[in-house]
Amino acid sequence: MKFLLTSSGIGNPSISDALVDLLGKPIAESTALFIPTGVHPFPGGAERAWKAIHGHASIPLGELGWKSLGLLELTALPTIREENWVPAVRAADALLVWGGDVLYLTYWLRRSGLADLLPSLRDTVYVGVSAGSIAVTPYNCDAEFDLQFVPDGSDMAQDADRALGLVDFTLYPHLNHPDMEDTDLSSIQKWASGIPVPTYAIDDNTAVKVVDGTVEVISEGDWKLISP
After folding, report:
1. Judging by beta carbons within 10 Å of its beta carbon (0-12, 13-18, 19+), is residue 167 exposed, middle or buried?
2. Residue 127: closest CA among 4, 2, 19
3. Which residues of 81-120 are buried (b: 16+ CB within 10 A; e: fewer)?
4. First to last CA, the chain
């Protein structure tokens, strides 16, 4: 796949230009499927998902002027015949993967079957926001936080620190965010010191673009590459 991994959506012209470049055509001529699944475990998750889908959240993604925009709810897919959802995924120009709980999102990416399908989508652009970006990396930097939302008796907590590993680096979003604990560079470096792959710490004006394994940082803000 082609990846545009953001901290906080398509928030500036540089990231917008990168998205258009990956699509190979204007957003107004492109189709997308929106995946809100990751936000459901949080308090108020239903309202937050609705705001995200309708473009009422502060993070620009769904309201960019797509030719068409559909909803892909991962928790529903195991109960649907594959021939009724896989063609829609293959036909979409972009998958817009919202943020939230990385552990929950990764769990449902696997259980829904979408994780197995993703590597075959050679021309599709995967656009991640926060948890949606972390989910395709090898390691979950939010594992300790996510564990508090695991339902009693669920097996979801197994390998909580691991994600899908579709790229060969990990990501720590919201660098130096004033409202988020442990996003200062020293805290991120402490976490990254135990990770055997490079870590990109990116702020909300930065994204990581990946095409055929080639990584490019798109930024109008601050970022740091932390090597193992």
Report:
1. buried
2. 4
3. eeeebeeebeebbbbbbbbbbbbbbbbbbeebbbbebbee
4. 25
Q: Which residues contact 154 (CB under 8 A, 6 or more apart)?
A: none
The whole-model pTM stands at 0.95
- How far apart are the C-alpha atoms of 198 and 49, rounded to whole Å? 31
Those residues with Cβ within 8 angstroms of residue 221's Cβ, 6 or more apart along the chain or in another chain? 202, 203, 204, 205, 206
For residue 5, the one-letter residue type is L
Per-residue model confidence as pLDDT tens digits over 115-164 = 999 999 999 999 999 999 999 999 999 888 888 888 888 888 888 899 99
Q: How far, in Å, CA of 186 to CA of 176, rounded?
A: 10
How many angstroms separate the CA atoms of 208 and 11, rounded?
A: 13
Choose among 105, 118, 102, 104: nearest CA to 174: 102
- CA-to-CA distance for 63 and 115, rounded, in angstroms? 25
State the Cα–Cα distance between residues 33 and 191, nearest whole angstrom: 33
CA distances from 62 to 68, 69, 70, 74, 205 (A): 10, 8, 10, 17, 17
Q: Is 95 helix (H, G, I), strand (E, B) or coil?
A: strand
8 Å CB contact between 49 and 132? no
